[in-house]
Amino acid sequence: KMWYTGYDPDKQPLMMKLGYATSKDGITWTRHPQNPVISDFWVEDIMIVRDDQRYLMFAEGAGDQAQLLESTDGIQWKRLGTLDVRLTNGQPIPAGPYGTPTAWFEDGVWNLFYERRDAGIWLARSTDLKTWTNVSDEPIIKPGPEPFDSLMIAMNQVIKVNGKYVAVLHGTGSPEKPRQWCTTLFESDDLLHWKKSVHNPLRPVTENKSSGVLVQNGTGWRLYTMHDKVFVHELK
What we know:
It is built from no helices and 19 strands. Helix content is 0%, strand content 50%. With 236 residues, the chain is mainly beta. The two termini are 23 Å apart.
């Protein structure tokens, strides 16, 4: 199953819409006949979590505001609203963009990773999906120091492999638009302290492949990268 965002740059006002596609082999995909499955409000930079009998979608909305949606079939979505993120003292985080939300649920606690102006990754936690409180008011991951992600970063996925947490990020060191983005990996023992993989970036910066997602394929892994197109890479 693949959920993806798209837009027509020639249509104004510009709006990101949600598409849905399925595949039996992860290579050849069929778009859903009802696409776009979300077209009445802005949705982008999404990630999906299966929560019992429902899907939860964490996504950016208009104005780079993180939002939460739910669905029972992955096609019909109900918007639950923007995420209420608080500082460690309980006060709302300062006004401004907070997006590219990535969630991980474990031991009754929801972990929300989000970026602010791509200047770093923050971690907030919740037990009810309603109020999220920062673990630290400083970013837990900052850009750099390597040149390929020295200016901007965002997180796309968290998984657990052999007892360790693995996060897929994308970053850029390009000072001017159009920027070149690349996909990177980080590892952690506690979701709070992260270390870059020595194999970063996973693809050459010149390929401009970002927003990666790892999917287990039998005994191996596939890396799907996004930008203007979706690519699949077999990890060795």
